[in-house]
Design brief:
heterodimer, A: 97 residues, mainly alpha, B: 219 residues, Rna Polymerase Sigma Factor, Chain: A, Arc Repressor Mutant, subunit A, 2 domains, globular, binds zinc ion
């Protein structure tokens, strides 16, 4: 029988659906009978969801303005027909300003 | 170095339509779309870069360089990978080359190995000998993200808990929960196995939950 202590170590496997069918049944059986473990699972989910809803941190306006300038410049240049650029290679990964 | 976005095995058909629509707007020179994209990802991007570089200023530089790279790469980007995966792949590269310049390059795999967090999810003292709860978690009055975030100080506690995570856990939690990436995307961006990703996520969420529990108990 799965203990509460064991359950706290595998809740993420459970939440991620990375568990065998029988293990999953075991967890569900335990959760069905154990209020504290249900609370624990809820709190783990809530912690993750709340991280996802933290207030956004927008980019500082001066940096954003500069990027937008670059973006506009490139879009303008791009209005010209594209040159036959080589297919994407790893050299594209470290573009320099 | 291997291109991060090439790691993905997703067929092009699985690229969501909103990615394609956004890509079209960006390529069409839609500044508003670009500004929104930049703002939406700024927080998580700075946090992820900080895993590699020495301070916040260096992280913000890496983020800025990333967007410059994104702008330059947009015409050539092939939507076989998610836009997000591509952007974060560039960020990891930028952050790592910045770290190298500062003489502190650490490959992510080393951070994963260094993650010696063997602490139990919950302190052993909270269980009886048989493994059942001796000191069970209390039900939280705030049981939605909205009500939790409406609690004064909760957002700061969560932010501090994330900042205090060991780097590999911080990277995974940032991408999964702050950015909202899938486990597959996280594995591609950080080049780690699904199991490593899950173990790190578990440890990270466990710590954030524990920080919240402590905070709510004191209230
Ligand atoms: Zn239990």
């Amino acid at each position: 029988m799965l203990s509460c202590r064991e359950l706290t170590e595998i809740v993420t496997d459970y939440a991620e659906g990375r568990m065998s069918f029988w293990r999953r049944l075991e967890v569900q059986f335990h959760l069905g009978m154990c209020h504290p473990c249900r609370a624990y699972l809820r709190q783990m989910r809530l912690a993750a969801q709340t991280v996802g809803q933290l207030p956004p941190e927008p980019m500082p306006p001066d940096i954003k303005a500069e990027l937008l300038k670059r973006f506009a410049a490139l879009s303008a240049a791009d209005a010209a027909p594209p040159t036959s650029a080589p297919p994407e290679t790893q050299t594209n990964r470290t573009p320099k300003s | 170095m291997r291109a991060y976005y090439a790691v993905t095995t997703r067929p092009p058909s699985s690229t969501p339509d909103d990615d394609l629509a956004l890509l079209a707007r960006l390529r069409g020179g839609d500044a508003q779309a670009f500004a929104t994209l930049v703002d939406r990802h700024h927080g998580p991007m700075v946090r992820l870069a900080q895993v590699f570089v020495r301070d916040r200023a260096a992280a913000e530089d890496a983020v800025q360089e990333t967007w410059i790279g994104v702008i330059a790469g947009l015409p050539r980007f092939e939507p076989r990978a998610r836009l997000k995966t591509w952007i974060y792949g560039i960020l990891v590269n930028q952050a790592r080359s910045r770290a190298r310049r500062d003489g502190r390059d650490v490959p992510f795999s080393a951070l994963v190995e260094a993650d010696g967090d063997v602490a139990a999810a919950v302190d052993a003292a909270r269980f009886k000998a048989g493994g059942h709860w001796a000191s069970p978690p209390a039900d939280w009055v705030q049981d939605t993200p909205e009500s939790l975030l409406a609690t004064r100080g909760a957002a700061e506690v969560i932010g501090a808990a994330i900042d205090a995570l060991p780097p590999a856990q911080r990277a995974v939690l940032t991408l999964r929960d702050l950015e909202g990436a899938t486990s597959e995307e996280v594995c591609n961006i950080l080049e780690i196995s699904e199991i490593n990703q899950r173990v790190l996520l578990h440890r990270a969420r466990t710590r954030v939950r524990a920080a919240l529990e402590q905070f709510l108990q004191k209230k």
